[in-house]
Amino acid sequence: MSSAAPVSTHRQVWTLAWPIIVANVTVPLLGAVDTAVVGHLPEPYYIGAVAIGAMLFNYIYHLFNCLRMGTTGPTAQARGAGEHAEVRAMIARALLLAGVIGGVIVALQLPIVAFAFWLINASAEVERYAREYFLIRVWSMPAVLATYAIFGWFYGLRNVKLPLAIQVFVNVVNIALAVLFVFVFKWGVPGVAAASLIAEYAGLLWGLYGVWRTLGELPRENTSGTPSKLLDPVQLQRMVAINSDIVLRTICVVSVLGFFMAKSAELGDVQLAANQVLHHFLIFTSFALDGVAQLNVASSGSLLSIPFGLLLSAPWAEAELARVRQFGFGESELERQKKSLLASYERAFNERDKSESPGFASELVGLYLNGDPTPGIAAPATTSPMQRGQPAPGATVVTSKTPAPGSSTPEVSR
Q1: Would you say 57 and 323 are in contact if contact means Cβ atoms under 8 Å apart?
Q2: Within 13 A of 311's CA, how many CA atoms are on the CB side?
Q3: Which of 2, 139, 167, 214 is nearest to 68 (CA)?
Q4: Neighbouring residues of 51: CB distance < 8 A, sequence distance ≥ 6
Q5: What is the DSSP string of 161-183?
Q6: Which residues of 183-206 are buried (b: 16+ CB within 10 A; e: fewer)?
Q7: Which residues does residue 412 pair with via DSSP β-bridges, in sequence order?
Q8: What is the DSSP-derived secondary structure letter of residue 409?
Q9: Which of 28, 53, 82, 321 has the greatest number of beta carbons closer than 10 A?
C-alpha cells in the first residue's frame, strides 16, 4: 500500500528536475560554442583567447549564481504562504540587485581585465584577443544577471519549462550568429563575443515577457492581507545576506578553477587550448548539480510555509499514516528510536558541563508553571525506563502484530 507513493514522488521530482538540470547545463554552453567555433580558425591562440575570456565570465557567472539560487528560496516560501505581493516584490528586488551588480561590473571592466591579466601569464596573442573578447561580451553582464534572477523566480514558482525554453533559444541564436559572424563576416574572436552579447539580450527580453505574463496571472491579494514593499529594509537585508553567504562559498570553488586555467596559460597556447576543452566538461557537471540543488531549494521553500496539518494531508503522508494504522510500528523501528533516544541522553550527559543557560531556564519554567520535575540530565541518563528495557510509565507502544479480524487498529500494550 505504501510502495506506490515513493514512485509517484520520484516521478514528480524528476519531472521538475530535468528541465532545471538541462537549463543549467546550457549556461556555460555559450562559452563552449565560442570555443568550438574559433577552433576552426588556423591558430591555437584563438582558442586560448576565448578560453581565458570564457574563464573570466564563468568565474563571474559562478560568483553571482547566487542571484538565481538566492531568489528561488524566498520566492518559494512566499508562494507557499500565499504572499503574492511578496512574490511580486521578490522579482523586482532581484532585478534591481542584478542591475546594480551588472552595472558595477561594466563600469569596472578595464580594472577587472587588467587585474586578470596581471594574474595570468599568457602569450601576447592570447592576451590581445582575450581582451577583445572580454571587453565586448562584458556589456551583456546586466542581461545575464537579470536572467539569473528571472530563472530563480520562475523556479520558486515551480515553472521550470520556460527557463529551459529561454536557454535553448539563447544557445540557438548564439550558434547561428557565431557561425555567421566568424565564417561569413570573418570577424574572428570579436565575432563570437558579439554573438554571445546579442543572444543574451534576446534571452533577457523573452524572460521579461514571461515575468510580465506571470505577474498578470498571480492573485492580487495576500492570504495574510499584509502588503509587501519593494524597498523593504528587512527583506532587502535578508536577500543580501542569503546571496553574500553563497558568494563566499562560490569564491572558494571558482578560485581553484581560475588557478587551474592560469597555470595552463603558463604552459603554452596548445596546452591552454586543450585544458579549456577539458575544463568545459567540469563546468557542465557543476551547473548540472546546481540544478538539483535549486530543485531542493524550490521544493523545501514552498513546504516551509505550509502548516503541518496540510503536510499530513499530502498523498505520501496519508499512505504512510494508513500503513501505521494497519500494521503498527515494526520492532526494528522501535529499537531504532530507543537507541536514538538513549544516545541523545548519553551525549547530553557527557556534555552536561557545557550546557547553556536556556536549557536550565526551560526546566525551571516547567517546574513553576506545570509542576514538572527537574532532576537534571544525570537522572534520565542513568535511570531511564527504556534503558531497563521497559516502556516509560503511561507510554503506549504499538506492536507489529496483525490486527484482529474486523479491527481497524493494531494491538497495543501498556
Answers
A1: no
A2: 10
A3: 167
A4: 35, 261, 264, 272, 273, 275, 276, 279
A5: HHHHHHHHHHHHHHHHHHHIIII
A6: eeeebbbbbbbbbbbbbbbbbbeb
A7: 398
A8: S
A9: 53
Give the Cα separation of 95 and 145 in Å (integer).
8
CA angle (361 as vertex; 359, 367 as ends), nearest 5: 110
C-alpha cell of residue 20:
532545471
As given in the structure block, the three cell numbers for residue 224 are 495574510
Q: Please give the distance of CA 15 from its chain centroid, rounded to a whole number.
A: 17
Q: How far is CA 275 from the centre of its chain?
A: 28
Q: How many CA atoms lie within 13 A of 337 on its CB side?
A: 9
| Cell numbers placing 237 | 537585508
Pairing of strands 412-413, 397-398: antiparallel
* CA dist list (Å): 81 to 71, 130, 224, 238, 383: 16, 48, 8, 17, 44
Q: Quick check: pTM over 0.90?
A: no
Q: pLDDT tens digits for 282-334?
A: 777 777 777 676 666 666 655 555 554 555 555 556 666 677 777 776 777 77
User: Can you tell me which residue has the cell 554571445?
Assistant: 196
Nearest to 195 by CA among 137, 271, 282: 137
3-state SS class at 4: helix
Question: Where on the phi/psi map is residue 162: left (φ > 0), alpha (ψ -120 to 50), or beta?
Answer: alpha
User: Count of residues for the chain?
Assistant: 414
List, as one string, the DSSP characters of 202-255. Answer: HHHHHHHHHHHHHHHHS-SS-SS-----TT-HHHHHHHHHHHHHHHHHHHHHHH
C-alpha to C-alpha distances, 107 to 102, 110, 255, 410, nearest whole angstrom: 9, 8, 23, 71
Q: Are 53 and 134 in contact (CB under 8 A)?
A: yes
pLDDT digits (tens, 9 = 90+) for 57-107: 877 877 787 788 788 888 888 887 778 888 888 999 899 989 999 999 999
The Cα angle at residue 94 between residues 91 and 98, in degrees rounded to 5? 135
Q: How far is it, in rounded angstroms, from Cα 309 to Cα 322? A: 16
| Residue 61 CB contacts under 8 Å (≥ 6 apart), including other chains | 27, 28, 144
Q: Distance (Å, rounded) from C-alpha 348 to C-alpha 342?
A: 10
| Angle at CA of residue 102, ends 98 and 107, nearest 5° | 150
260: which 3 cell numbers? 587551474
Element of type H or E holding 265: helix 233-267
